[in-house]
From TrEMBL:
Listed name of the protein: glucan endo-1,3-beta-D-glucosidase
MF annotations from Gene Ontology: glucan endo-1,3-beta-D-glucosidase activity
Signal peptide: 1-25
InterPro entries attached to this UniProt entry: GH (IPR017853), Glyco_hydro_17 (IPR000490), Glyco_hydro_17_plant (IPR044965), X8 (IPR012946)
Organism: Juglans regia
Occurrences of domain X8 (ranges): 380-465
């Protein structure tokens, strides 16, 4: 018996070894692309799938389970990531039938012809902070369990279940060895999440953008370090690990945070990363030169054979998905939000990029000069964007003036900015005045795309348009 058990043990070990090899073979180092659709001028899903294939992406990540797109992806070689929207998490967490129905309605019609390989539950769930959102934090892992059970019930074993998180889950990330998750999340969310990812051999999906820490401290962090140029070195004083770029530093802080909670082995996958090609006046470093440099260096690093990994985990493949396919004009927030794309809305590339990593970096055509790597100092106004829809301008003007505090006193008949009576001039005044007054409370110069920042003073004669001083 003993002998037989021993042989069984050997067979079992061999089987497990083969399975591990199989499952790691599933995970290539091919670069993926995030396919966001928050634009009113984007190519059809049909054209988009053609673009994604022409770019030689290895995988594509959606922010939902759009049936038209999933149908178009069937028969392609693209690995597909789909997503349960945040607002469905709580009902799935509380009811297995709801989870089963989600899988039946969103996976079964397309699988396996569409190579769905990852099912993400929610998007950056832990980055929303209202009371209702906090309920969603606690429902996240239970929902992931239910979705996993629903897949098992359909005998689907090659779809990983995960959830992409943002770097604001970190309490501390510098130096990387000090990496720790936010105290308010550790026991309630992170430990159960890590247990789930460990037990199901899934990935820790992280949205990681060196652009944000750099643009917040451009005088303290080297731009080359953020752009993965490899010419700057930093040693973590606690363990002597040598870092040559900010991305590795951020990834390792997550690895150290997981290790401290007793999960040293969970694999990391980058669910979003990238660099914006344009943005507001107040956002330094958002330009084509930096974006091309970052993404090209990223691709070289991720697709290198043998795999590079990070200082804490050398040699390990990090499946990576670049953000994003298109510039998306309906995204709110700062100007960079609408400028992460590799393609313009008409499908032409914003800059050349080879997702396979085979093109030598020296063979690309020269890039335009970077003009905004230093933070801008001076006055900025918020005016009507070129091509803004005039029909939408009146309600936006009314909104800006309706927020009170004398925002539009100068526009009253007889006041200094009343003449000329033009919707565009009045709206430019109102947008600037509103932004100048309420920026400290979080107001942005956006107005659903009707407004842009400018360093050119729109004041005329006695009409002085309020500005923001950067
Ligand atoms: C997709 O594009 C192809 C080729 O351009 C065209 O023949 C087909 O009708 C399109 N399908 C849809 C659903 O638009
Ligand atoms: C779970 O959801 C199903 C279908 O939506 C519903 O019929 C059932 O009553 C729900 N069960 C509970 C316990 O709420
Ligand atoms: C209006 O401005 C004053 C002084 O700047 C400020 O104290 C007050 O809170 C503002 N009111 C609103 C509604 O923002």
């Amino acid at each position: 018996m003993r002998g037989a058990m021993g042989d069984m043990g050997v067979v079992a070990v061999f089987l497990i070894f083969s399975l591990l090899r199989l499952s790691s073979a599933e995970i290539s180092s091919k670069i993926g692309i995030n396919y966001g659709t928050l634009g009113d001028n984007l190519p059809s899903p049909n054209r988009s799938v053609v673009h994604i294939q022409a770019m030689k992406a290895g995988r594509v990540k959606l922010y939902d389970a759009n049936p038209e797109i999933l149908q178009l992806l069937s028969g392609t070689k693209l690995q597909v990531y789909i997503m349960v929207p945040n607002n469905e998490i709580s009902s799935i967490a509380s009811n297995q039938t709801t989870a089963d129905e989600w899988v039946i309605n969103n996976v079964l019609p397309f699988y396996p012809d569409t190579m769905i390989r990852v099912l993400l539950v929610g998007n950056e769930v832990l980055s929303y902070y209202s009371d209702q959102d906090r309920q969603m934090w606690y429902d996240l892992v239970p929902a992931m369990h239910r979705i996993k059970n629903a897949l098992k019930a359909q005998h689907i074993n090659n779809i990983k279940v995960g959830t992409p998180l943002a770097m604001d889950i970190m309490q501390s990330s510098f130096p990387p060895s000090s990496g720790m998750f936010r105290h308010d999340l550790v026991d309630t969310v992170m430990v159960p999440l890590l247990q789930f990812l460990h037990d199901t051999k899934s990935f820790f999906f992280i949205d990681v953008y060196p652009y944000f820490p750099w643009s917040g401290n451009p005088s303290q962090i080297s731009l080359d370090y953020a752009l993965l140029k490899g010419n700057v070195r930093y040693m973590d004083p606690r363990n002597g690990l040598i870092y040559t770029n900010l991305l590795d530093q951020m990834l390792d802080s997550v690895i150290f945070a997981m290790t401290k909670l007793g999960f040293p082995g969970i694999r990391i996958s980058i669910s979003e990363t990238g660099w914006p090609t344009a943005g507001d006046v107040e956002e330094p470093g958002a330009n084509i030169r930096n974006a091309a440099t970052y993404n090209r260096n990223l691709i070289q690093k991720i697709t290198a054979k043998p795999a590079v990994g990070t200082p804490a985990r050398p040699g390990v493949v990090i499946p990576t998905i670049i953000f994003s396919l298109y510039n998306e004009n309906r995204k709110s927030g700062p100007g960079t939000e609408r400028n992460w794309g590799l393609l313009r809305p008409d499908g032409t590339p914003v800059y050349d990029i080879d997702l396979t990593g085979k093109q030598n970096l020296l063979d690309y055509a020269p890039l335009p000069r970077a003009r905004n790597n230093m933070p801008y100092r001076g006055q900025v106004w918020c005016v009507v964007a070129r091509g803004a829809d005039l029909m939408k301008l009146r309600p936006a003007l009314a909104y800006a003036c309706g927020e009170g505090n004398g925002t539009c006193d100068a526009l009253k008949p007889g006041s200094e900015c009343y003449e000329p009576v033009s919707v565009i001039r009045h709206a430019s005044y109102a947008f600037s005045s509103y932004w100048a007054r309420f920026r400290s409370q979080g107001a942005t110069c956006y107005f659903n795309g009707l407004a842009v920042q400018t360093t050119r003073d729109p004041s005329r004669g006695s009409c002085k348009v309020p500005s923001v001083n950067l």
